[in-house]
Amino acid sequence: MRVAILGTGLIGTSIGLAARGWLDAEVAGHDPDPSALVAAAGRGAVEPAGSLEGAAAAADLAFVCAPVAAIPGAAAAALEAGARVVTDAGSVKAGIVAAVEELAGGGAGRFMGGHPMTGSERSGPAGAAAGLIDGAAWALTPTDRTDPAALASVEDAVRRMGAVPVTLSPDRHDRLVGLVSHLPQVASTALMSTVASSADETAPLLAAGGLRDLTRLAASSPELWVDILLANREAVAEAIEGYGDRLRSLAAMLQAGDAEGLTEAFARAKDARLGLAARPQSRVGLAILTVPIPDRPGSLAEITGALAHRSVNIEDLEIVHSAEGARGTAHVTVGEADAEAAVQALTSSGHEAARLA
Amino acid sequence: MRVAILGTGLIGTSIGLAARGWLDAEVAGHDPDPSALVAAAGRGAVEPAGSLEGAAAAADLAFVCAPVAAIPGAAAAALEAGARVVTDAGSVKAGIVAAVEELAGGGAGRFMGGHPMTGSERSGPAGAAAGLIDGAAWALTPTDRTDPAALASVEDAVRRMGAVPVTLSPDRHDRLVGLVSHLPQVASTALMSTVASSADETAPLLAAGGLRDLTRLAASSPELWVDILLANREAVAEAIEGYGDRLRSLAAMLQAGDAEGLTEAFARAKDARLGLAARPQSRVGLAILTVPIPDRPGSLAEITGALAHRSVNIEDLEIVHSAEGARGTAHVTVGEADAEAAVQALTSSGHEAARLA
Hints:
Number of helices of chain A: 14
Order of helices and strands of chain A: EHEHEHEHEHEEHEHHHHHHEHEEHE
Oligomer: homodimer
Structural class of chain A: alpha/beta
Distance between the termini of chain A: 47 Å
Shape of chain A: globular
Helix content of chain A: 40-55%
Largest sheet of chain A: 8 strands, mixed
Number of strands of chain A: 12
Strand order of the largest sheet of chain A: 3-2-1-4-5-6-7-8
Largest interface: A-B, 136 and 136 residues
Radius of gyration of chain A: 23 Å
Strand content of chain A: 15-25%
């Protein structure tokens, strides 16, 4: 199998590494930035090609991993150059898919919009890893013009690289990521701004874990996020409006002293939160253990060490701060099959451990 | 010194333990619920008294740790019974302080509103610990009627129990906790409701770390929070309104395609977030290290173990998920004095570790 990587940044280089490792593919790469291409080749992710067309011409599957604005042109060029199937990695889909279908004319059936839901705090080829693909959800957004064979081909490659294909329409993709990914970013930034502009110098002394949890995303890269949000502006604006309505409804119940209505709304939200699994694609098969953390050096090492000793993989670990104050309890997410062994390991090392409902 | 604990739940019992340990005090306790009183006595936190008045009569300092609605009556009764100074642990202050001053008449000068900013996921005397007090911020809210000697006496006791007194007016206290504690809870609950009601069954597959961070608080106890929010309803409603304004302003910039305005707003929020320390009362002297976590059993144990081996205390550990995807980087907060040793320990155990700006 021959794969082309068009755009060798963090995601493109990661896909190149995964394609070499798990698709056993010959991988040709191109990037308009020569230093990115050299770095990706240095990581062993691609054989560098002199042009986009050179990389794409003989490809069974081309991945366009360019910035959102550059995707339609690059995808159309790859189709024109002869790539059998072309997909992309843009984080919004409706606009890109429509633009590619318009530019590609008769070749549009061979384009399949895609969005690997992965990333890293690091950027560029240096931050790339095949592991970023393994286990990630990967949205695929066919339209009625998409050739079913193109969908099947991308789906197969995605699955063999260890990711989990999720097929949905471009509009539904954009609406959903607007809600579950873009709205949380806006909510976090707006909260941090509100607190920063209204609070005085005493406020940080009184702030506890809750504020920190909710404003963590506000420390993300402004440039990266503004690009993403602008590319999905209608869906995000709609999500913000829905969120604003919900806030106003809670405020109205509060001002009316409606304890019953508030309790019901809070209880429904609590139920919904408990239904969110640690790894999105693993909706079954995970268990969350609560473990109080003694405040002394080495206590987290004891907890994680006790689990490592039994080869229990920690899927996730959150230090949950109480509503007020900085003391913590660890919420340790492990596979369902490991849960009993994990509780035993923790208990016999002198920790309290219990399964969360 | 003689201390009275009026209300022996989680906070009252913890204060009793701290008063015995660090104030070397005789501690008398009372609770209208006999089983809570027996449990607190069983923890060694109090000598049980037959009545509130019996516990309060000879006290140099009485802590009223009752539910918000019961505080004014209990505080007035303790003053009447002869306690030299009375303080409370209610999480809102203006209404309580005004009610006590009205009920207590001439004794009002001996009452000092208070709010230890601490808590636990566990509840009742069984969850109590002197450690919940040690290091916590403790708000004190004198008015112009408060006797300066009462303030000095509570401040001294709080400090000797290891907490950090923060003195401010009742109104300012309520406005600030409305912003930094109550608003985040409402924002989290509203976000979870918005996503739950608007999203379809595919949404959880696409949800990543950001949504989980922002909705963690939504899993809190509805009953507890509705009581707190209703007791501070004006300040919370005002905070929600400010938050709504901020969201509308971001949405307007988004719809206008104002990349520059958005980038500026996001950059300001990012700066504000980077200024929030892990432990609110330790605004200086902490360092945050970023450490990528390999996805295999034992990797967190290696990281925490390497630090434990050098006796570096982990002040906080967050697993920061990238904006999309579930892979993580640990943000490990350590004391500034330990930072260099921590980086060396991690590096020499084969991990990448760098200080966050």
